[in-house]
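Final report, closing paragraph on structural work. Over the funding period we assembled a curated collection of sequence-structure pairs, and we close with a single example.
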Amino acid sequence: MPPSDATVAAVPGWLVGLHVLGVIVYAGGIVSVSRLVSLAACGDDGPRAALASAARRVYLGTCLPGAVAMLATGVYLLVADPGGKRYLHDPSGYFHMKLTLAVLLLGVDHAGLRLMKALARGTPGADADGRRVLLRLLHAAVIALVAGVLVALFVVKPR
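Its predicted structure, as stored:
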């Protein structure tokens, strides 16, 4: 039985707006941080320290609050289901695709955070080239996952 109009109207617009804002801030921040970390890995010691510090500030000031807003509102919308949309029983698979991409992005973010911390401590000379390649691949993975989320939101979403 489809939800009634009164039930669907119960989803607060500001809650969905906060969720979307969290996604936008988090995705933009993580792309910026991954690029800063990638640049820091290629630089000399002076620029490396400055770029690593900038990446940390962007991560803590932008990515983390965006991720918290995204996760908190997303979990609430999923568990409480205020609009009666039954996301977990979506036959189109749209929600599951979006959730999978979001979880993958959080995993890549976690891997990048570990590399960012290692870079801030100082990169050993023998491992520097391997770490540079990993950071460039991480930046490419972040961009691909953000693009995948955008495709999921605007192209695949059932109307």
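The chain has one domain: 8-156. Helices lie at 5-8, 13-42, 45-80, 94-121, 128-156. We thank the funder for supporting this effort.
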